[in-house]
Write a structure and sequence with these properties.
The protein is α/β, with parallel strands linked by helices and 211 residues long. The chain has a single domain, classed as Peptidyl-tRNA hydrolase (Rossmann fold, 3-Layer(aba) Sandwich), CATH 3.40.50. It is built from seven helices and seven strands; from the N terminus they run αβαβββαββαβααα. It has a seven-stranded mixed beta sheet with strand order 2-3-4-1-5-7-6, sandwiched between helices. Helix 2 crosses helix 6 and helix 3 packs parallel to helix 4. The chain is globular.
């Protein structure tokens, strides 16, 4: 199975987040930010697609391969509905879906690409796994850091953290890690997910690089 996964290149890239201005630029929406960066770099127009329950665009990656970009508008907990709508329509196998999402267990400035894995408590990924019927698809976790308050263990502290916006001091690091993520994704399209993992999973940008 591992060899099969490593040989499949992404055909659909999904960024997880919540729709609406209220959630724009929040930590939980870092997946949306990366999709917007890819769309701009690859000159792929994004528009609302009700059939796919999301903001969707289709075009070509730098490799000249056909690529589809998706930002579900179902709200995070139902992200899998939108993903499944696209994979069913284009008859895409789950292993060709690359999902980008936020991770509190990684500090800001770090990211991790993997070929498969569990949801790790992330509701958007729980939905994706449920609708795709497998954990065997690649994902890119973008670090957003944990709540800074030492006693921020309550659910309300976690929610306020992930739904909060990045500070002005964090903005530069966010821009750097989004750039790093787009580079890693482009490499994964050219040379495969394992190659991108080996070159980018240990990279650090921003304040985390000097901590």
């Amino acid at each position: 199975m591992a060899d099969e996964l490593s040989s499949v290149l992404p055909q659909l890239i999904v960024g997880l987040g919540n729709p609406g201005q209220k959630y724009d630029q929040t930590r939980h929406n870092i997946g949306f930010v990366v999709i917007d960066a890819l769309a701009k770099s690859w000159q792929i127009s994004l528009a609302e697609n009700r059939k796919f329950h999301g903001i969707f665009g289709e075009g070509f990656a730098p490799t000249r391969s056909k690529m589809r970009l998706l930002k579900p508008t179902t709200y995070m907990n139902l992200s899998g509905q939108a993903i499944r709508a696209v994979t069913d329509w284009y008859k895409l196998p789950p292993e060709s879906v690359l999902i980008i999402y936020d991770d509190m267990d990684l500090p800001l400035g770090r990211m991790r690409m993997r070929l498969s894995g569990s949801a790790g408590g992330h509701n958007g990924m729980k939905s994706a796994i449920a609708h795709l019927g497998t954990q065997a698809f690649p994902r890119l976790r973008i670090g957003i850091g944990a709540p800074k308050h030492p006693k921020a263990t309550a659910e309300k502290d976690t929610v306020s953290h992930v739904l909060g916006q990045f500070s002005k001091q964090e903005a530069e690091t966010v821009a750097d890690v989004v750039h790093l993520a787009t580079n890693a994704i482009e490499l994964s399209l050219k040379e495969g997910i394992p190659k991108a993992m080996s070159l980018y999973n240990n990279r650090v940008v921003g304040a985390s690089a000097i901590d």
